[in-house]
Amino acid sequence: MLILVGYLVVLGSVFGGYAMAGGHFGVLFQPLEFLMIAGASAGAFIAGNNGKTIKATLKELPRLLRSSKHNQELYMDLLALLYQLLAKARKEGLMKLETDVDNPGASEIFTRYPRIMAEQGILEFVCDYLRLAISGNTDPHEIEALMDHEMHTVKHEAEMPAHSLAGISDGLPALGIVAAVLGVVHALGSANLPPSEMGELIAQAMVGTFLGVLLAYGFVAPLASLVSQKVAESMKMYECSKVTLLASLHGCAPQLAVEFGRKVLFSTERPSFTELDSHVREVKAG
């Protein structure tokens, strides 16, 4: 919802300042200018992206209105899940995890964490690399390299909406100039009009430049930035899982392995050592 607050601040600042300067709002109401700019940017968006990117961008836009789900509780659940899996593997052997990772929906451990179960990407990530560890034929360094390749692919795919929105933002000022130039052409084509009417036509034309710049930097660019931030938040779950699993594969005890995972989290969501230790003790007791 913060994005709506930001939009209100943008509109209030721009139009409030315009009103305080004695500007007339009637001249700013130019639906045809807006139609040209919005239509051209939509057409450029369709022409410059494939179907996969267009679908991903349209799917991502409604999510930007929701608050972030990547909070401390979600990361605590992830670390607790990893702790339980690694503790079971250390106590009973890696082979005992095979039924859990093959069918997480029927696993007593996985089903304790419905929020993690809802994160399909991270669920598959954890299960896939535990399967590789169970096979026993892969070196931890090879697993780390494979993790890096997969995370790079996941991040690249998740950032496609941000790149497409950034492209629209970059093009909007130029499309505003196109609309303004067409308005000036129309005004010059009516050179026989009185100066007052000519001035009005030129003012209307300049609205195109104004709209292009305002839409680009006041509305679309923040969307691209917000998508990039959400991608960075989601990738922290992968990084946390990666570091925790690799620490375990290198011989660290489960409680120490989840401490490795805790350290890679952003400071705003990272639980303290005491909070994580208490949470792990509660999990162990349960």
Automatic annotation (TrEMBL):
Residues 128-239 form the MotA/TolQ/ExbB proton channel domain. Keywords: Cell inner membrane, Cell membrane, Chemotaxis, Flagellar rotation, Hydrogen ion transport, Ion transport, Membrane, Transmembrane, Transmembrane helix, Transport. It is found in: Cell inner membrane. Pfam families: MotA_ExbB, MotA_N. InterPro entries: Flag_MotA_CS (IPR000540), Flagellar_motor_stator_MotA (IPR022522), MotA-like (IPR047055), MotA_ExbB_proton_chnl (IPR002898), MotA_N (IPR046786). The chain crosses the membrane at residues 31-49, 165-189, 201-227. It is a multi-pass membrane protein. It comes from the Bacteria. The keyword Ion transport applies. Residues 4-93 form the Motility protein A N-terminal domain. Belongs to the MotA family. This is Chemotaxis protein MotA. It comes from Variovorax ginsengisoli.
